[in-house]
């Protein structure tokens, strides 16, 4: 039986795929599928990646070339060696708000810190950690400054500063009320080797702490407030007293080698952990008051300076042991 001849109107069979074309089409389809997700889902994916990996997504395809720049809530962290241009470039391209900015400021990059703060204030940064590095060229008692833009970061919930000098707040602008009130969203404040060398600094720090109703974690280590001369505190009678009021505080670290005027005021009913070294007023009523106010914590670490060997003697206690 004769086989029917194919109709002349039948379409010719498709040509075989060119090598590599199938994989390229598959990659494009996969990329398109990912980019077809809702923007908030893509933002959530990017915010879970380290900054280096986020920036590398620009190499995935043309559609990803600038996608990371519109992702809000990025965690910007720099560790190791980097250039000021890299940091400035990333900040300039990040969308607001910036979830966190964490950086170790090496001595040669100190002049750029003020610019970074201005950019972060505009991008409504929520968590800020500036750790300045020391240098052999530093004069004794002279710390690098952070710049007044720190006061414009109004949405901070977490602030950590190390080895720096905080300047006086800028004067209020017409129609903006009175003095700088603080950071009302703060839940964590950590100041380590920080100077506030101006009149009224203690009152300012008191307002910042009291003005954050949800503050849960407070660390004050070698914080000096008030006018300084020659790197040393002025005479005792010029000390400006200020107090710590934080009813929702869960953790308190208070270390001071010189009396900066700070005291704990009132009970801290939610305090669980306290790390105290206040030998600058050892043997005074203020010392007893501080010890009493933190004595009901679950974990208490108390340290005093061994004045003969210039070391620290630590005592660890459990709740209600004092």
Automatic annotation (TrEMBL):
InterPro entries: F-box-like_dom_sf, F-box_dom, LRR_FXL15/At3g58940/PEG3-like
Superkingdom as given in the UniProt entry: Eukaryota
Biased segments, Pro residues type: 9-18
Domain F-box residues, every copy: 35-70
Domain F-box/LRR-repeat protein 15/At3g58940/PEG3-like LRR: 114-225
Chain spans, region Disordered: 1-23
Coiled-coil ranges (or none): none
Protein name: Uncharacterized protein
Organism of origin: Oryza punctata
